[in-house]
C-alpha cells in the first residue's frame, strides 16, 4: 500500500472511530436499568470502550497530551465515587459525558484560524471536562489539519484565478460535481475537496472565503445532503448573517457557524452559487467592525 492510500485508510479509520464514540455516548445517555449497580457497571464499560478510541484519534491528529488518559481515568473514578446513587449517576452523565461548555467551544473557535488550531490543541485539551468536549476538540483539529489533505490520493486538480482546486480522497459523484462546479474565474486561494465514500462525507477547505472556511457535507440521504460549516473570520457582518443556515452573529464575534439541508439535484452548482460565492472575503472587510481581539 503506497503512502497516500495508507493515509486515506487512516482517515476512514478516524471517521469510524468518531462515529463509534458518538454512538457509545448516546448509549450512555439512553441506557436505563432498574438496578443502579447495573447502570454504573454499564457506564463504566462504555467509558472503558471509549477511552482507547479517543486516545487513538488524538494521536492521529497530533494532539500530544498525556492529560487525556489521566482525564479519562479521572472520569472512571468519578463514576465509582457516585456509589451507584441514581441521582449522582444522572449528574455524572451530564457533567462528564454529555456537557459542552460555551467557553470551551469559544476557546476552540477563537484558536481555529486558517486551517490550523495554532497547535494549541494540548493546552485546550487541559480545559476539557467531558468526553463530548474532548471529542469536539479532536474533530475540530482533524477538520483544521491542512497538511493532512496534501498526503491523500489526488483525484483531480485545476487552476482557478486565485490558486488551485485540489480534489483528493475517493472519486465520488458529489466530489466530481463540486469540483466541476467551481468556476475557473474564482479568485480565492487554494480550495481543497476531500471525499470519503465509505463514510458518505465530503469535506471542503476554502482559503480567502471568510479567511479559511471549512465545509462538511453528509451525503447519507440521497435526496437531501446535510451541510455544516465554520467561518473563522467575520469579514462582513451583514453578509455573514445572510448566509444560508447561519447561527446569527453579533458585532464583536470573531467567527460563525451554520448548517442547512440542500437538494442533491444539481448540488455542486447550487452549493457554489447559493452558498460559497456568498461567503465574504477580505475584500468585503468592514474596517469599523468591532473584533473582540
Q: Could you characterize the architecture of this molecule?
A:
The protein is an alpha+beta fold and 293 residues long. The protein contains 11 helices and 7 strands. Strands 1-2-3-4-5-6-7 form a 7-stranded mixed sheet, sandwiched between helices. Strand 2, helix 9 and strand 3 form a beta-alpha-beta unit. Helix 1 runs antiparallel to helix 7. The longest helix has 28 residues. It is globular, with a radius of gyration of 20 Å.
Features:
293 residues; alpha+beta; 2 domains; seven-stranded mixed beta sheet; 11 helices; globular; disordered C terminus
Strand order of the largest sheet: 1-2-3-4-5-6-7
Rg result: 20 Å
**Main sheet record:** 7 strands, mixed
In percent terms, what proportion of residues is strand? 15-25%
Helix content: 40-55%
- The shape, in one word, is globular
Structural class: alpha+beta
Instruction: Give the H and E element order.
Output: HHHHHHHHEEHEEEEHEH
Through-space gap between termini: 46 Å
How many separate domains? 2
Count of extended strands: 7
Count of alpha/pi helices: 11
Average of the residue pLDDT scores: 87
Unreliable runs: 288-293
Amino acid at each position: 500500500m503506497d503512502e497516500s492510500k495508507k493515509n486515506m485508510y487512516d482517515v476512514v479509520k478516524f471517521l469510524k472511530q468518531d462515529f463509534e464514540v458518538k454512538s457509545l455516548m448516546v448509549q450512555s445517555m439512553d441506557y436505563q436499568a432498574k438496578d443502579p449497580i447495573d447502570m454504573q457497571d454499564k457506564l463504566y464499560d462504555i467509558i472503558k470502550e471509549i477511552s482507547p478510541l479517543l486516545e487513538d484519534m488524538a494521536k492521529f491528529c497530533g494532539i500530544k497530551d498525556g492529560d487525556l488518559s489521566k482525564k479519562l481515568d479521572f472520569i472512571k473514578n468519578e463514576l465509582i465515587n457516585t456509589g451507584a446513587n441514581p441521582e449522582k449517576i444522572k449528574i455524572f452523565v451530564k457533567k462528564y459525558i454529555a456537557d459542552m461548555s460555551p467557553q470551551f467551544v469559544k476557546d476552540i473557535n477563537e484558536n481555529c484560524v486558517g486551517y490550523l488550531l495554532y497547535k494549541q490543541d494540548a493546552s485546550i485539551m487541559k480545559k476539557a471536562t467531558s468526553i463530548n468536549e474532548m471529542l469536539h476538540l479532536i474533530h475540530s483539529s482533524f477538520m483544521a489539519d491542512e497538511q493532512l489533505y496534501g498526503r491523500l490520493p489526488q483525484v483531480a486538480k485545476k487552476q482557478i484565478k486565485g490558486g488551485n482546486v485540489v480534489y483528493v480522497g475517493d472519486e465520488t459523484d458529489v466530489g466530481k460535481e463540486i469540483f466541476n462546479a467551481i468556476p475557473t474565474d474564482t479568485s480565492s486561494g487554494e480550495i481543497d475537496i476531500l471525499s470519503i465514500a465509505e463514510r458518505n462525507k465530503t469535506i471542503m477547505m476554502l482559503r480567502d472565503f471568510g479567511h479559511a472556511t471549512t465545509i462538511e457535507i453528509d451525503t447519507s440521504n440521497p435526496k437531501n445532503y446535510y451541510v455544516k460549516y465554520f467561518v473563522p473570520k467575520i469579514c462582513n457582518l451583514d453578509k455573514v448573517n445572510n448566509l444560508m443556515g447561519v447561527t446569527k452573529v453579533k458585532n464583536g464575534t470573531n467567527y460563525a457557524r451554520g448548517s442547512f439541508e440542500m437538494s442533491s439535484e444539481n448540488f455542486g452548482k447550487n452549493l457554489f452559487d447559493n452558498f460559497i460565492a456568498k461567503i465574504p472575503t477580505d475584500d468585503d472587510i468592514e474596517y469599523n467592525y468591532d473584533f473582540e481581539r
